[in-house]
Design a protein that fits this description.
Strands 1-2-3-4-5-6-7-8 form an eight-stranded parallel beta barrel, surrounded by seven helices. The protein is globular. By secondary structure, it is α/β, with parallel strands linked by helices. Strand 6, helix 10 and strand 7 form a beta-alpha-beta unit. The chain starts with a helix and ends with a helix.
Length: 307
């Protein structure tokens, strides 16, 4: 792990810095490199532009850890409207949802009620796929447990995200493979203790490869979420060696990151999905992107001081 990742992620929890960055024009400009905008219209426009160059899209309304039932229901309404607008616009897009935005911290019943509303609306729109996003490790088991309940109740237009920096992930991948669940595999972007997560990048990458190969060979249309070209090239080679057609998986990348690589993979015949976030609560998301690439953080910080 980069020695800078931990302090930058800690800054993501600073209310003082959040207030400063969120109201500063430069901070908002920096965020718009990684965030489509603050409205549903911005999100749909970004999806439409991505579709034009052959990219599929996953839209995510930014916001997490709601503190009240009213906030959780408001977040749910946002997704219901978003699903309506995706269908109306005819864009190739699905949605990603954080359960903490829907009341996971408040009440399990409330959270399940809200996610069921979203899944039911998605079903009405030609079974639009809904991904349950993953957050820090303290939420992993609870998120998967809620997912298992939804799956048992027949909500099969949904899938999960698993993070290769967690020790448990290979076991979770096997469970999802056995069940036939669509998995997005990523490395993980939260600050985790060594009791639950690999500390070294090489270990995270090795676990990613193990999980990726299992998903590609046996899984249900996995999403391989990475910008790491070594991992991408490994996936391509593994697919060719095992006669895995490009229709059986997709690469996933973040909005605003490596658009050149996204276009290259599309031109080579691979499915690529851009993860497109939008909304006013962009500060924590921005800081996680800065932690992944500290050079961006120092550039932005230097511009603040110049101002």
């Amino acid at each position: 792990m980069s020695v800078l990742k931990e302090p930058i992620l800690k800054l993501s929890q600073s209310k003082e810095l959040r207030g400063f960055v969120s109201t500063n024009p430069l901070g908002r400009k920096a965020a718009h490199r990684f965030v489509a905008g603050e409205t549903q219209t911005d999100a749909i426009n970004a999806a439409r532009e991505a579709n034009k160059i052959g990219l599929k899209v996953s839209l995510d309304h930014l916001g997490e850890n709601t503190n009240s039932e009213a906030e959780a229901r408001h977040a749910t309404e946002e997704y219901l409207e978003l699903l309506d607008k995706i269908a109306e616009a005819g864009v190739d897009a699905n949605v990603s949802v954080k359960l903490t935005a829907l009341g996971q911290d408040i009440n399990r019943g409330l959270c399940i009620e809200n996610i069921c509303k979203i899944l039911e609306r998605a079903d009405q729109h030609n079974h639009t796929f809904v991904r349950l996003d993953m957050e820090g490790s303290s939420y992993t088991e609870n998120t998967l447990d809620i997912f298992r309940q939804l799956w048992r109740e027949g909500h099969h237009n949904t899938g999960v995200v698993l993070q290769s920096y967690l020790y448990r992930t290979a076991t979770d991948v096997q469970e999802m493979v056995d069940t036939g669940v669509r998995v997005r595999l990523c490395k993980g972007a939260y600050l985790e203790p060594p009791t639950v997560a690999f500390a070294e990048k090489t270990e995270v990458d090795e676990n990613y490869v193990r999980c990726m190969e299992n998903l590609m060979l046996h899984g249900n249309y996995p999403g391989l979420a990475t910008h790491d070209e070594e991992l991408i090239n490994h996936a391509i080679s593994y697919a060719k060696e095992n006669n895995i057609g490009p229709e059986r998986f997709e690469f996933q990348m973040l909005y605003g990151v490596r658009r050149d690589l996204q276009k290259k993979l599309v031109a080579e015949g691979y499915n690529v999905r851009a993860y497109v976030p939008y909304g006013s609560e962009w500060y924590p998301y921005l800081m996680r992107r800065m932690a992944e690439r500290p050079a961006n953080f120092f550039f932005i910080a230097s511009q603040f001081f110049k101002g």
